[in-house]
């Protein structure tokens, strides 16, 4: 709904307001789109190779700038379609990346989104300013841990295996006292643009959290619920610790299906 001034005085103030007095950041939207590959038993992430500066030739999340006449959600879906040809996928807000120096062009704040879809339904094709759009299998490992009374610090290696293999490295520091706060720093980009290597780690961990506590797995499975397919997905995601998460989501999906059938038969 368009705002209407509440008084003549306010209308005059808005008429004479000069926005050029206040520098503004640009806003962008990025999408971390994951899919489950049942053939290779891996969780994969869709990345695009940048065709323009900066970071030309590096890999990144699909995404781009938000237009003045659209919401960030709309921009995320538009950019995903323009750069990869993918549409009609479920998106949810993931993280805001706002380091003042994250983009050498200008001050850019990026809103990142998380998506998890059925790999068989997707056929990404690079478009717009993306030279290539490819799937990368994702995994992470802890390379080093240091602990003090104040914090726990870990060095995390993210492995992205696709047309090329990249291993960005992230420092993760979590405070021990008060309200727990975790800070991240990208130590080694290894072919990833901006801080997207760090973004991959954050997105992958959020995906695992959502798989554990929600029914997001539905988006990566066929329409017909198959416990065997679901179990394979959870073995891939959680390995030897999969059982608890698998049984919980299996029960939720079965309950939802029974309720749906009761109201639609």
Describe it.
The protein is α+β, with helices and mostly antiparallel strands and 265 residues long. Strands 1, 2, 3, 4, 5, 6, 7, 8, 9, 10 and 11 form an 11-stranded mixed sheet that branches. Helix content is 28%, strand content 33%. The chain has 2 domains: 25-220, Nucleoside Triphosphate Pyrophosphohydrolase; 221-265, no CATH class. Strand 2 (42-50) and strand 3 (59-60) form a beta hairpin.
Set out the fold topology.
Blueprint: H1 8-16, E1 26-37, E2 42-50, E3 59-60, E4 63-65, H2 72-84, E5 92-97, E6 108-118, E7 130-147, E8 151-161, E9 165-166, E10 169-175, E11 182-188, H3 196-213, H4 227-238, H5 242-264
Parallel strand pairs: 1-6
Antiparallel strand pairs: 1-2, 1-4, 2-3, 2-7, 5-6, 7-8, 8-9, 8-10, 10-11
Helix pairs in contact: 4-5
Report a brief summary of the structure.
With 265 residues, the protein is α+β, with helices and mostly antiparallel strands. The protein has 5 helices and 11 strands, in the order αββββαβββββββααα.
Q: Helical percent range?
A: 25-40%
Order of helices and strands: HEEEEHEEEEEEEHHH
- Overall form: globular
Number of helices: 5
| Assembly classification | single chain
Based on secondary structure, the structural category is: alpha+beta
CATH structural fold name of the largest domain: Nucleoside Triphosphate Pyrophosphohydrolase
Number of strands: 11
Portion in beta strands? 25-35%
**Alpha-carbon Rg, integer:** 21 Å
Low-pLDDT regions: 259-265
Cα separation of the termini? 40 Å
What average pLDDT do the residues reach? 90
Main β-sheet, in a few words?
A: 11 strands, mixed
Give the total of domains.
2
């Amino acid at each position: 709904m368009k705002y209407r001034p509440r008084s003549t005085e306010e209308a005059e103030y808005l008429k004479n307001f000069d926005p050029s007095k206040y520098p503004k950041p640009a806003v962008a939207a990025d999408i971390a789109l994951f899919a489950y590959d049942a053939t290779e038993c891996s969780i994969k992430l869709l990345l695009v190779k940048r065709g323009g500066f900066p970071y030309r030739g590096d890999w990144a999340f699909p995404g781009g700038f938000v237009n003045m006449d659209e919401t960030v959600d709309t921009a995320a879906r538009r950019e995903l379609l323009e750069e990869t040809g993918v549409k009609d996928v479920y998106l949810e807000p993931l993280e805001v990346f706002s380091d003042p120096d994250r983009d050498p062009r200008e001050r850019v704040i990026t809103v990142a989104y998380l998506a998890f879809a059925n790999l068989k339904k997707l056929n990404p094709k690079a478009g717009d300013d993306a030279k290539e759009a490819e799937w990368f299998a994702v995994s992470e490992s802890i390379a080093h841990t240091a602990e003090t009374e104040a914090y726990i610090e870990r060095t995390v290696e993210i492995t992205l295996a696709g047309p090329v293999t990249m291993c960005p490295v992230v420092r993760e520091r979590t405070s021990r006292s008060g309200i727990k706060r975790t800070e991240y720093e990208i130590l080694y980009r290894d072919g990833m643009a901006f801080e997207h290597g760090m973004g991959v780690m954050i997105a992958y961990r959020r995906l695992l959290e959502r798989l554990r506590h929600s029914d997001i797995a539905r988006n990566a499975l066929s329409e017909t619920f198959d416990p065997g397919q679901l179990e394979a997905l959870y073995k891939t995601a959680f390995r030897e610790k999969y059982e608890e998460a698998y049984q919980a989501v299996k029960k939720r999906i079965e309950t939802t299906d029974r309720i749906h059938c009761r109201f639609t038969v």
